[in-house]
Amino acid sequence: MSPLPAKDHPQPQSLSDLFMSFTLLALQGFGGVLAVVQRELVEKKKWLSREEFVEDWAVAQILPGPNVVNLSMMIGDRYFGLRGALVALAGMLTVPLLVVLIMAIVFAGIADVPAAQGALRGLGAVAAGLITATGLKLIAALKENVMGMRTCWAVAALTFIAIALLRVRLLWVLLVLGSLASLWAWRQLGAIKALGAQA
């Protein structure tokens, strides 16, 4: 399958470009993959706009499997069909898998050392900061959301309360709040379409 026609932003030039881009992205994704993915795909490569990234990331999150792997396959498929999806998947997994295996062998020898345990805890704080910073950067994309900014904030707040404070399982949050948000967006799109038909 040939690549899609160029849009108003750049796109992968070839399957090898796709493979190398996702390999390099995966190798940077220690701890805070969301921040890395957003920076690489939106800010540097500009393969996605902020709005497209938010929409694609939402779909990637509700699919089974790692979010970033799902997103890579969606992007590969968008530009090169099934071959692109498989190449993007290979880019995400091949070299990082080798690195993780080597690190697991090395870490097995020092896992009980207090300094190594402390370093891992410190990296956890950095990962939390990266995710928070990326979330704040992506808020601007909600201005264009069909649900409206107030509804987006309400859904985000309810999601935070359900997961962080009430400890509701993610599956139930996705089913309930995700379904309600989808229905509201569908209703808003219908209203916009009806207004367009009247005009």
Written account of the structure:
The structure is a single chain. The chain is globular. Residues 1-6 have low confidence and may be disordered. The longest helix has 44 residues, at 67-110. It has 7 helices and no strands. The chain is 77% helix and 0% strand. Helix 2 crosses helix 5, helix 3 packs across helix 4 and helix 6 (149-165) packs antiparallel against helix 7. It is mainly alpha-helical and 199 residues long. It has helices at residues 15-28, 33-44, 50-62, 67-110, 114-138, 149-165, 170-198. It has 2 domains: 1-142, no CATH class; 145-199, no CATH class. It starts with 14 loop residues before the first helix and ends with a helix.
Number of helices: 7
Mean pLDDT: 83
Tell me the count of domains: 2
Helicity, in percent?
Answer: over 70%
Number of strands: 0
The biggest beta sheet reads: none
Rg, alpha carbons: 19 Å
Q: SSE string, helix = H, strand = E? A: HHHHHHH
The outline comes out as globular
What characteristics describe this protein?
globular; 77% helix; 199 residues; mainly alpha; 2 domains; 7 helices
Describe the structure concisely for a colleague.
The protein has helices spanning 15-28, 33-44, 50-62, 67-110, 114-138, 149-165, 170-198. It has 199 residues and is an all-alpha fold. It is globular.
Layout of secondary structure:
Blueprint (H helix, E strand, L loop, with lengths): L14 H14 L4 H12 L5 H13 L4 H44 L3 H25 L10 H17 L4 H29 L1
Helix pairs in contact: 1-4, 2-5, 3-4, 6-7
